[in-house]
C-alpha cells in the first residue's frame, strides 16, 4: 500500500525498532541512504546497512537477516516485483519500499499489511483499479454458504434466471474478466520507467519532520542529478523537480546575501546555477571536457576528422587559445573565465548546440572546494563500478557512499579521476563503434556488441557504465547516420560479462528522441524472448532491461527478440 | 411445599415419570428454527444483491440475441389474454423474467394483473411446450412468495394442472412442476394435504428412477420433504407410508444434498407422536441414520442428528432402538463438535436418553458419555450447557444410587455448581433440583456430610447462599431449602449420626476419590 503520512506510518514506526536497510547500488539510492542515515543518527535508531546490487543479493541478505529483523527498508529496489512472492516473509515482517522503479508491482500496491510504499503520490502511477485485477467474489459466496450450512431447507424457493445460465454465464464472465485483466496488466507493465528520485522522497520526509539539513538537501540534489545523467527521467520531470529543490535551496542558503549576515567561508553553501553541460570541466581542462561530453562530442561528431576541425573552429569562434583550453580549468586565465558561460553558449548556438547550458546546483565549502552536482554523480558512480579490486564486494559501495560526505574529499577526488577515465573510455569506444560501423540495424532495433579484447571492455561489464556507453553511443549514432528510420530505433548493447562462465551483459535503451518519455519496453521483451527460446538468462538487475545471458544463447535470443518486436 | 409442587410439575415433562404421552416430550423451541431460517434467507438475499447488477448487465446481450421485446405490464396482460400464440409466449416469458430477477420481483403486480388463471390455462397447452414451461416457471415463482401469493396460484387452479404435468414427456417441464408443487406444499399443512388429496404422491414418486439426473432428483427430494413437513395435522398416513420407502432409497444416494433433504424429511416425520416415530422405526432405517449422523458433512449430520433426537423423545423401546443402532457411540464426537448448534442438539438428544430407565442410563455410562458431558457442561456454548444441565438433571431423577456416585465421580459437580452463576433462573432451578437429588442419594448412603464438604470445597455453598438473595422467589426458596436441610451445621441433629459413625471428620476428601 501507499503510505500517505510518511512520518506517522513510516518513520514513527521504525524509529523504535531495529531496522535493516537494503540499498541498491545507484547514486540516487546512496543519496537517499545518506539522508536516512543522518536521520537515524539524530534519533539513535539501530540499523544495519546491507548493499544489494541485484535480486539475488537482496534475497540472500533477506534470508540472512530475517530472523533478527522484522523491519526492512528497501531503497531503489523492490517496488517492481512481487516482494512477498520472492521473499516469502513471515506475517510479522514489514517492508518499507522507497524505490523509483516503475511500474510498481500491483500486489505491492494492494497489500495492506506488509508492504508500505514510500512513493510520491503525485507521480503519474497509473495503477490499475483493484477490482480490475483482483477478484474474490467467489470465495465470498462459498463463505456464506458455509455459514448457513446445516440449516433447515427453505419451505419455498424461487427459480432465478441464473439457474439456467448461471454456470456458462459465470464461466464466460470469468474468461472475459481474465482476458481484460491480462490486457490491463500488459498495458501497465509493458514499459519500465522511473519515478521521483528516492533521495528527494527521503528529503521530503526529513523536511516534513523539520529535520532537514543543508547536507541532506545536497544529497537530494545529487540524487535527482543522477536520474538526469542516467537519462532515467524526462527533461520535463527534471526541470519540475529542480524547481522544487530550488525553493528548499533558497530557504536553506539565504544567508550570506549581504555583508552583515555572512557565513564563514568554511560553511557549506548550495547555489542554483545555469551551468555548462560539460562533464567535470571544473576539474579537467575545458578541451578534455568538450571532447568527452556526450552532448558536445555527438553534436560536433568528434570521431571524424571534420569533427575535430569543427571543434577547433568552435574554440576559435569563442576566441579561446588552444593553450588555455588544454590546461587545467583551475589554471585558466581569470579574464577568460569571467564570461566563459555566456561566451560558450553564444558560440555553441552557432554550431547547433542550443542546450549547452542546464539548470543545476553547485556546492561550495572552503576556499577551493566547488563542485557541481553532476561532478558528484560521475565520481560516485565511478567509485561504485571501480573495476580494480580493492577488497571484498562491498568495498566499492562503502567507498562510493563515503565519497558523498564532505569529510571524505580524498575519496571524492579519487572518484573524479576514475570518472575521467570512464568518460574517456566511453568516448573512445563510441568513436571506434561508429567508425567501424559496429551499430547494426536489426529491423525493430539497433544492435551493437562489444568484442572480447576491445580496450576497456571490462569496464563495460558493469551495468551503469554500459548504460552510459549505450546512451552516448546511441546519441552519436543518431547524429552520424543519414538513415531517418534508424534515428528512431532503440538500441540493444551487449558486452562480455564473465569470460570464464561465458556470459554477456545486455542492455536495451529507448530511442533517442527529443520528446522521449524515457519508457523502456525491453524488460518485458527480454523476458518473453528468453521464455520462448529457453535461453539461459539471469534477470538479476533491478532494472528489467539489463540482463545477463549465456554467450551461446545470444543468437537465438536475438532472433526471438526480432520476431517479437517486428 | 411449593418447591416440591414445582418439581412434580416438571417431573411430568420427563417421559418416564409423567402420565400424559403428549407431555412427556420436551419439544424443541420452534422460535429457534424460525430464526435460523430467517437468517439464511437474509444471507441468500444479501448474497444475491451483490451479484445482482452484474447479472443484469450480462443478461441484456443475451436478451438482445434472443430478440426479446420488452413488455410493459399492460402489454403483458393484453398479449396473455390475446389469441396470438407467439405473443402469448413472449409475454409469459417477459412476466417470468420479471419474476425471476433477484431483487424485488413484482409478484403482487403480476397477481393483480389477474393473469394467473390464464397462466394455469397455458399449463395445459400440450402442443406448446415452451409456453407450458414459461407459465410453469412464472407460477413457481409466484407460489414462492408469501402465503397470499401461494394462495393466488392454488385458487387459480394450478394444483391439478401441475400434477398432470408431472407426467409431461418434457423433462424440464415436469421438473418445473415438481418445483412448483414443492412451493405449494411448503406453504403449510393445508395445501400439503390438498396436494396429497389430489394424488400428487404416485406420479411424483414415479419420477424417481436410477436414470433421473441429479439436479432433477434434488428437486424431487426437496418437494417430498415438504410433503412430509408440518404438523397439526400430521401428513396423512397412507401418503407417508408411500413416501418412506423412496426416502430410504434416496438416503443411499451419493449426492449429499439429496441425502440431506431426505434426512430432513425423516426428521419431520419423526417430529411427532410416538406412533409416527414408530412408522419410521419400522422401516429399519435407524442404523443408516446413525451412520449419517457421523457424516463429516454438516448438511447431512444436522438433519440426521435431528431425526435421532426426535426418535429418543419416544417410548423407552423406541429410545432403545436408537441405542441399539449405535447412537451412543456417535454422540461423544458430536458433543465435542466445533459448531455450537451441533453441541446443543447432541446434548438435547443425550438428555432424553438420560431420562430413560436406569438400564439405559447404565448404557450411557458404559459407552463413555459422562466425560464429554462434563466437558460440555464446563466449556460448551451456553445453549449447549443448558441442555447438558437437563441431561444431568434427568440422570439424577432416574438413576440408581450407584449411578449417581458414578456421575459425581466423573467430576460433574464443579461445572454444574459454576453454572449457578448463570443469569437464567430456569437453569439455576434445574441445577438446585439436581443438587437436591444428589443429596437424597447421599442420605440413602449416609454420606450427606461428605457431599456437603465436597460442595463447600468447590465453592458451591457460597454460590447457593448467594442465591438466597436471587430476585426469583422460586430460586430463593430452592436455595434456602438446600441450605436449611444440609448446611445448617450443628443445629441439624440429623447430620450428627452420619459424621459420628467413624468418630472423625474427614476433611481430606477430594472430588476425584469421593466415595459414598
UniProtKB/TrEMBL annotation, chain A:
InterPro entries (UniProt xref): CDC45
Molecular function GO labels: chromatin binding; DNA replication origin binding; single-stranded DNA binding
Subcellular localization(s) per the UniProt record: Nucleus
GO cellular component annotations of the record: DNA replication preinitiation complex
Keyword Cytoplasm assigned: no
Keywords in alphabetical order: Cell cycle, Cell division, DNA replication, Nucleus
Region (Disordered) residue spans: 136-160
Entry's family note: Belongs to the CDC45 family.
Protein name: Cell division cycle 45
Organism the protein comes from: Columba livia
Origin organism lineage: Eukaryota, Metazoa, Chordata, Craniata, Vertebrata
TrEMBL record, chain B:
GO terms for MF: nuclear import signal receptor activity
Alphabetical UniProt keywords: Protein transport, Repeat, Transport
Entry keyword Protein transport: yes
Ranges of the ARM repeats in the UniProt entry: 114-157, 157-185
Stretches assigned to the IBB domain: 1-57
GO cellular component, one term: nucleus
Keyword presence, Transport: yes
BP GO annotations: protein import into nucleus
SMART domains: ARM (SM00185)
Family: Belongs to the importin alpha family.
Protein name, as recorded: Importin subunit alpha
Species of origin: Columba livia (Rock dove)
